[in-house]
Amino acid sequence: MKKPEISVIISTYNAVEWLRKTLTGYKIQDTTDFELVIADDGSSEETRLFLEAFKKESPVPVIHVWQEDDGFQKTKILNKAILACNANYILMSDGDCIPRKDFVSTHLKYREEGYFLSGGYFKLPMDISKKIVEEDIIAQKCFEKACLKKYGLKSSIKNLKLTAGQKRAFLLNNLTPTGATWNGHNASGWKKDIIAVNGFDERMQYGGEDRELGERLFNYGIKSKQIRYSAVCVHLEHPRGYKTPEAMAFNKQIRRETREEKKTFTPHGIVNRL
After folding, report:
1. CATH number of the domain at 6-273, please?
2. What are phi and psi for residue 99, nearest 5 degrees?
């Protein structure tokens, strides 16, 4: 069997309603030369049954990587998912981010040796997140300002993420002051580079664990490219009960050490999986 051009890792935990909307977006991508790798941090049987049904209608292969529920252990399941990827290039996003139909092909278009790609998201409030239905995703209306305004979206300069055409998106990618960091909801890079820095630091919980991976990639010599206006996804709101001040402070300390000591490798990463 031919290897896919790209493996798309989608993280999830007990959020079938959002995961269903997200995976609908991957069913209608303008390329099928990819696989979906679901990084499941201990979801219940409901998620497993949903994914078993989804596999039967998915136009691309679906791999479900699951671990026992032991609190927020996203870094551990992501490292397991990285090892499960069959492609040489990996795109990472979340089960609450609906991709526009050119999301995967845009990452493929801009990939380049020696670089990782940094995308963003268009964040929706909870009321609009709930109003979006499958038909909106299939017709791509959830990426149209008119549809979202009908659902209650307020005017903002941030709406440019939805309305920028290819030429304007290219310009905005170069003009935005936002740094081209590794963002767990929308970033891609070469599997060999991610393996070389040993993936995610499994000591880290919520708060900058994705950025820390990117910082080690920078220290390793990998550069980044900004594609936040080209690779578009909409983010569905949800509670974050796993966000704690203690975890945030601990993660900041690890990131500080990574930057100051110019670390390229964590001993608390993928090597633990081999």
Report:
1. 3.90.550.10
2. -85, 140
